[in-house]
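Priority: medium. Attachment 1 of 2:
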């Protein structure tokens, strides 16, 4: 992948979930391999778009979190068809170029295994060796992102130059009805860059009354909050914190949650958030959202 960025070189995409809410389709085909049609009319696997966006952001190495055995499934997809099938693609030059690009991705992707379904934080912890002490970009595998005019991944990665080593999470505006689905923050905007927020509290899926009392950010309309957009720039200490949580069996709702680790990281060293004003998020996590997102993503500019 491109070497034009050196501040952030690595990214992590988790696709190890079971896709339970998409059953029985997810029993036949892994959710992140469901077909999604891009604005160019090409049908790709959902996770494939992360690789395209990360390459555009200058990321050099990508680690995909999978269940045991799924690494070969993903490699097989990226490796593409055999020579006889490629011969058929010669009449479709755009698709032939796609196959060539996929093979390039296959050589640059590595994998981390999540052997047990122990939560999002547990999944991320499996990439500790991949991170190897560097900051990493993390994006939800069942969401897609698009920015105007630049990739949201690039916009977030650029915050490494001003974060002074702190983690930075992308956030966007959410309503009271949406609080139940997102980590939500309190904080104060920086005068020199109002999109960048010094975070003073992080709560996972807060109740409305808790959000009204504790989770305010200046410059927002009434009953509007800032919640996780679906991508994070994580400082290396997140792995130390996740390791402590796993060692001490610190769980929320039976799982090791990344949001808990992020709040601990905030308490120890500070934490930033970046409001994504010109970016869109497409959620493919549940069937109805999938239907809406597949149409919106196809038509997005």
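Attachment 2 of 2:
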């Amino acid at each position: 992948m491109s070497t034009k960025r050196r501040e952030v070189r690595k990214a992590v995409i988790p696709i190890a979930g079971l896709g339970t809410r998409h059953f029985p389709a997810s029993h036949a085909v892994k959710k992140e391999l469901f077909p999604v049609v891009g604005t160019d009319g090409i049908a790709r696997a959902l996770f494939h778009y992360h690789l395209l966006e990360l390459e555009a952001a200058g990321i050099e190495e990508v680690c995909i979190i999978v269940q045991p055995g799924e690494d070969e499934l993903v490699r097989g997809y990226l490796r593409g068809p055999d020579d006889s099938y490629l011969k058929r693609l010669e009449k479709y030059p755009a698709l032939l170029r796609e196959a060539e690009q996929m093979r390039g991705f296959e050589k640059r992707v590595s994998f981390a295994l999540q052997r047990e379904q122990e939560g999002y934080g547990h999944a991320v912890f499996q990439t500790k060796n991949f991170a190897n002490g560097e900051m990493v970009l993390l994006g939800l595998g069942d969401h897609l992102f698009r920015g105007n005019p630049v990739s949201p991944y690039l916009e977030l990665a650029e915050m490494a130059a001003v974060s002074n080593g702190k983690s930075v999470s992308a956030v966007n505006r959410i309503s009271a009805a949406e609080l139940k689905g997102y980590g939500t923050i309190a904080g104060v905007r920086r005068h020199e860059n109002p999109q960048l927020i010094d975070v003073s509290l992080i709560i996972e899926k807060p109740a409305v009354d808790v959000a009204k009392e504790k989770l305010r950010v200046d410059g927002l309309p009434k009953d509007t909050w800032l919640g996780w957009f679906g991508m994070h720039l994580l400082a290396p200490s997140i792995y130390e914190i996740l390791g402590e949580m796993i060692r001490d069996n610190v769980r929320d709702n039976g799982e090791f949650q990344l949001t808990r680790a992020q709040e601990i990281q905030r308490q120890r060293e500070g934490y930033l958030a970046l409001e994504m004003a010109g970016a869109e998020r497409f959620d493919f996590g549940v069937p109805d959202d999938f239907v809406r997102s597949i149409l919106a993503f196809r038509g997005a500019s």
